[in-house]
Amino acid sequence: MMKKPVFKLNNFPIRYKIITLLLLISILPSMGLGLLTGYTVERIIDNQATQHTLQLIGQVNKTLESYASNMQNISYLLSMDLEINTFLSQKQPTTNQTEDEVYSIRQFMQGLSTLYPEVAGILVVNSHGNYVSNELYSRSNENLTEESWYKEAVQNEGIFKIIGHPANRSITSHVNYKNSEVVTVVRAIIEPETQEVKGVVLIDLKLRVIAEATKNVRLGKYGYLMVIDENGEEIYSPANPLVKEIPKRLLNSDDSGYFSEEVEGNTLQFIYQKQPFTNWTTVGIFSTDESIIEVKTIHLYVISFVFFVCIFGITASYYLSNSMSKPIVQLMSFMRKVESGNLSIRYKGDRKDEIGMLGRSFNHMIVKVNDLISLTEQQERQKREAELRSLQAHIKPHFLYNTLDTISWMARKRGADDVSEVVASLSRLFRIGLSKGNDIILLTEEITHIQSYLSIQKARYRDKLNYSIKLEPEIHDVTILKLVLQPIVENAIYHGIKERKGPGHIHIHAKEEQDQLVLKVTDDGKGIPSDKLEALREKMDSLYTVKEEKGKRVDFGYGMMNVQARIKLTYGDQYGLTIDSILGEGTVVMIHLPIQRMSVKS
Questions:
Q1: In sequence order, what E strands does 171-212 have?
Q2: Interatomic CA distance for residues 225 and 219, integer angstroms
Q3: Does the pLDDT at position 199 exceed 70?
Q4: Which CATH number fits domain 467-594: 3.40.50.261, 3.40.50.2000, 3.30.565.10, 3.40.50.300?
Q5: What does the CA dihedral 145, 146, 147, 150 come to, rounded to 10 degrees?
Q6: For the chain, what percent of residues have pLDDT higher than 70?
Q7: What is the widest separation between alpha-carbon atoms in the chain?
Q8: How far apart are CA 442 and CA 431, in angstroms?
Q9: Do 10-320 and 467-594 have matching folds?
Q10: Angle at 214 between CA 50 and CA 166, to 5 degrees
């Protein structure tokens, strides 16, 4: 006997379930559902307002920390300047040379103030009380080393410190800033070997940059942002604040959060976030009455909507079904998880409708986001490694130059002119390669650098290697990212000229073409096989370093890959290298760079 199918409510079409449900229940339960929805909406609005405010505070904090970081960088630049270190070691400026040096230091400080307009003034004091500044000066003859800010900097042992608004100090500014208009930062300059305090750098930061970062942020009609330090003192507050005194619970709270407190009969919402670098806290303050008005309006709309749905919307209720709502809610849940940082979530389903297409697009988007994050991390890692290499190369360069010059002089004295020439070329090679830590140098310096390199290689390969260089006169003042030619020429020698039979020739031509700087390196060496050439082009387009692919290791192109990565990271994807080669005939590498000129200093 055939069993009758068991009735299951879930198998009943949802449109009929919704119609039956709406017929069974009355308007009162519908209004209750409306109130529940309104309550949920109220919580969502509160959460969204809180999250939105925290995002705004986070953006303001990033801006303020950027300004503070700039001040720290300025203090580092000052502490590493040779003339400032000379000034710190002197007891008093007595000679004309010292006065010239002090003037040069002021010019250097003025240049930093121009580069960072948020700087109100810079002052450097040595351990004997002598000072030099571009905007600040002492109002009395008292020794500045007795000032409280000087002692605080010394106590901090060379660590950058933000003091806050200046108070009771005997220095002032030519612009006559009020104490409430600036924030003071200090750092002691320490002798690395003896740990002796050589002096203190004091920098005044204009408060208006903090005001500009916060004044355009409005929380509702009357809400605002303010900034306080770790002691609860106001760093910045608008003209007409809602509170005159910061709640004490704000000082003993966590790094971020929110709470409500009644102030003078008005319930205020406090949302705060602490800046780890400055120890300042940015606080958002607004009245909860503004959100209550919006919530009441939403309640009215929800109740009215539910009422009319109960009366007139029964015929349309069959359009609501789980086949639409459930996957949409699922996708929304996935998106919220992605927003919270979980990029491993994936939509799983075999639907063929628009929701299935949306789910697959969602998965594709997450894969792309992961790829972009990985690419960004790799690019930042490459940039940090390049900076580290540049820093390491800049250690004690003058010792290297002097040593090479000594070797060259000794070789020339003994009649070994060829050895002297090679050593002199090596000295020029290192001097331009280091370039005092600068990544951007004149094109003529880059050409001198490659000439020195080729001169050294010529001494090694003799008649095997010949070269010529042509530089158009109209581009002598163009600047360029340093060390872009040497890896290309090195590849031309070791993979081209060295592998061919008989002598070879390398030609370098620098010219301006279609508003771009074009460096063309041509050799008549062995050339590159077509399969390796295609693999090298793909790698240069990807901006990745050479790695193993499909079990086969490609062992060429390291130098060109690094040059390609540096150019694209510095100038953008529209610039870089192109390479053409014919096996047995030679290779041509084109370097495309923007035209950037440097005015020659008198």
A1: 171-173, 182-190, 197-206
A2: 8
A3: yes
A4: 3.30.565.10
A5: 40
A6: 71
A7: 119
A8: 13
A9: no
A10: 125
